[in-house]
Design brief:
With 459 residues, this protein is of the alpha+beta class. It contains 13 helices and 17 strands. Helix 2 packs parallel to helix 11. It is elongated.
């Protein structure tokens, strides 16, 4: 049997290679470090944690904790080693990152079905089964070849993403549904501001604390005027935002009457923040034009000054950092296979998922499906009621024009049969449904599955 090639030894690549090897299929895991270093890594170990040592909240009624639980039930080596090398961190799953990465490197290097190659892959292998897991710092040569393969003139090399909020947390008594100049279907929620509200927001935005960009990110960011942070736009003048993303013209609030009518002139908003629907069900909404480099706590504080967003529940904060990701809704299916070449799969931040646990989940699915292809089996799609299934359904089915990376969150899960206002109870029911559906799916789909697998926590 020809080996499967996994390119990239981060969390997704390590998980993918392990799942392939555990299925009894030979795998070559390519990692360019230490032959070629990246600007963010500091060691040559696999699955090095660059930004933080935390995998997020452990409680299973949190999005990250639910994803941990699903991966434990599916035999993830990443989560097993995270459990093994956990350090105290309140309610989070945090690890001793050096020991964690070293133990994973040793586990993969010692596996009889794994060959670990320290080399830079500069082009997609033209034949065989291949899994791309090169992450946000994909090398220039491979990124160029991936652009050639996809035929896309655009891949994001600098991720400037706006915050996303849960639709249920938006005050619909304030926000109104309308599209500018009534063009097409009303697809935007609009949060109107009077002059006093706008000036309060503008002043808070100008004074808010920013996060530091790394040196290699600053070099990339300075060329992207189109990705200007909203706080930088605010600092250019009191009215700059009002002539940009917050312009109040061309909008009609049916509750107040036509603003063009002289009798309604006083009702016309001084500025308007628009939110665009992010998912098919309308459960998630994106703040249009609000790419930002503010610290996350500052984002929540300042953006809740926007009328209608006082109680906003953020599922993703705005980010600006060096990132390479493909337009997955145009290119991938929920099995993480490329439409134009089903023997080529991808996972991790490269496909537009955010966070350590989401990268691990993608590695599990891409590795599992790569092994199944090698064995002559059909690839699998995870149940959409699970966090893993919902995440990959989202990145493969979102609107391509506005696609941005997405972390795991309850907003992407299908709605429950009945609306539950209490957030903790609602999330608990999402969790219970996810675990039930995952168990049923495992019994139906995975060969050799036994109930004991549900409690697997070690590699």
């Amino acid at each position: 049997m020809e080996p499967i090639h996994v390119i990239g030894g981060g969390l997704a690549g390590t998980e993918a290679a392990w799942q392939i090897a555990q299925a009894g299929v030979p795998v070559v895991l390519h990692e360019m470090r230490p032959v070629k270093q990246s600007p963010a890594h500091h060691s040559e170990h696999l699955a090095e944690l660059v930004c933080s040592n935390s995998f997020g909240a452990q409680a299973s009624d949190r999005a990250s904790g639910l994803l941990h639980g699903e991966l434990r039930r599916l035999g993830s080596i990443i989560i097993a080693q995270a459990d093994r090398h956990q350090v105290p961190a309140g309610g989070a799953l945090a690890v001793d990152r050096g020991v964690f990465s070293q133990s994973l490197t040793e586990a993969l290097a010692q596996h009889p079905w794994v060959e670990l190659r320290r080399d830079e892959v500069t082009a997609i292998p033209p034949e065989g089964i291949v899994v791309l897991t090169t992450g946000p710092l994909t090398s220039e040569a491979l990124a160029t070849d991936l652009q050639r393969f996809t035929g896309q003139a655009y891949m994001s090399f600098f991720d400037a993403a706006s915050p996303i909020v849960v639709g249920e947390s938006i005050n619909r008594e304030v926000a109104f549904l309308a599209s500018r100049y009534d063009r097409g279907e009303a697809a935007y929620l609009n949060c109107p501001m009077n002059r006093e509200q706008y000036l309060q927001f503008w002043q808070a935005l100008c004074a808010a604390e920013q996060a530091e960009l790394k040196e290699f990110e600053r070099e990339t960011a300075k060329f992207f005027e189109a990705c200007l942070p909203i706080e930088e736009m605010a600092r250019r003048g009191e009215d700059t935002m009002r002539y940009g993303p917050l312009k109040p013209v061309g909008l009609f609030d049916a509750r107040l009457g036509d603003f063009k009518d002289p009798a309604n002139k006083s009702k016309k908003p001084y500025a308007v923040v628009q939110l665009r629907q992010e998912d098919k069900a309308g459960q998630l909404w994106n703040l249009v034009g609000f790419q930002t480099n503010l610290r996350w706590g500052e984002q929540a504080r300042v953006f809740r000054l926007i009328p209608g967003l006082e109680q906003a529940e953020f599922v993703r904060m705005g980010v600006m950092h060096r990132n390479t990701f493909i337009n997955s809704p145009e290119l991938l299916g929920p099995t993480l296979q490329f439409h134009q070449r089903p023997t080529l799969l991808a996972a991790g931040q490269l496909v537009g998922t955010e966070g350590y646990t989401a990268a691990t989940a993608g590695g599990w699915l891409a590795g599992t499906n790569a092994a199944r292809l090698a064995q002559g089996l059909d690839p699998v799609t995870l149940p959409v009621n699970t966090m893993m299934g919902a995440l990959f359904d989202f990145i493969s089915g979102a609107e391509p024009k506005h696609f941005q990376p997405m972390p795991p969150n309850f907003g992407i899960l299908p709605a429950l049969p009945q609306r539950i206002r209490d957030k903790r109870e609602r999330y608990g029911q999402y969790r219970d449904r996810a675990f039930t559906d995952l168990t049923d799916w495992c019994h139906r789909t995975l060969p050799g599955f036994t109930p004991e697998n549900l409690n697997q926590t070690s590699a």
